[in-house]
Amino acid sequence: MIRLTFAFALTFAFTPRAHAETVCDNARHPGLTDGPVTIGYADAELGTGHRACLRDEIGLGERAGAIIDTPGFYGALNADTLLTATHVFARRFELFGALELVHYQFAQNATLKGSSVGLGQLTVGGAFQALAGRAWAVTPYVRLELPTSSDAPDVRTVGGELGVAVDFRPYRKVMFHGYLGGDLTAGLSAAPSLVRGGAQADVGVQYSPATWIGLVLDLRLALGHRAALDWLAPAVAFRFRFWRTLGAELAAELPVAGADRHLVAFALRLTYRY
């Protein structure tokens, strides 16, 4: 007797759908900083826009600026030690903040001079990545300025900023970035409040020939704060990655037109992404 046995096996395999790669996933390396150059002339990071790609990051940096107005018999120096942090949750939302741990200010005119040092201003904000495609990312953001400064106890400065940031990567080594925003500040005291507002914009490009270096050129524009044109300022930055998630940025900005009297501004920042 010959017995023939047939066996049939039917197997279904389900593979989770892979997350589609986006422009932000294409970053040259997690430790290499991206986005606009954020030196700024205002308190903390007010008026410096934001980047479209969200990050979990902690940063510590120094920035300094100088005003030398010889015809106006005026000069000023300022320096800040800035602590920054960003945190992403639910993949598309980011909370961020910047605190002037140490704020130094020196000013002199024809007859008077003075200096102050202490705790500076705090800004906090949030961003929502509305679009994240293979080449484009679009992220609206909002930032608030809180009155934490210790150098003027009789005046409390508050403010806010609203804008949108855009990243565009046409090639693996090239990323274009920019933002458009507006801000408003007010000095609260016993005297009538001084309210001031304006708009700012930035467009720039970062070229990363290797995973450990990025070269950045930005053009920043500010309108309406003190004059029709506050400043038109090119900015350059050199960005480096030392280890996988540790980076550094050295940046400089030089206003070439406008009512703002800053001669030059510098910034050095270390960042750790987690």
Would you give an account of this structure?
The protein has 274 residues and is an all-beta fold. It is built from no helices and 14 strands. It has one domain: Beta Barrel (Porin), CATH 2.40.160. Strands 1-2-3-5-7-8-9-10-11-12-13-14 form a 12-stranded antiparallel barrel. It has strands at 57-69, 74-89, 93-108, 113-118, 122-128, 131-132, 136-146, 156-171, 174-188, 194-210, 213-223, 231-241, 246-253, 262-273. Strand 10 (194-210) and strand 11 form a beta hairpin. The model is unreliable at 1-18 (pLDDT under 50).
Task: Please tag this protein with its features.
single chain, 274 residues, mainly beta, Porin, 12-stranded antiparallel beta barrel, 14 strands
CATH architecture title: Beta Barrel
Query: Could you give me the name of the CATH homologous superfamily?
Result: monomeric porin ompg
Low-confidence regions: 1-18
Q: Tell me the radius of gyration.
A: 23 Å
Sequence of secondary-structure elements: EEEEEEEEEEEEEE
Question: What's the quick description here?
Answer:
The protein is mainly beta and 274 residues long. Helices cover 0% and strands 59% of the residues. The chain has no helices and 14 strands.
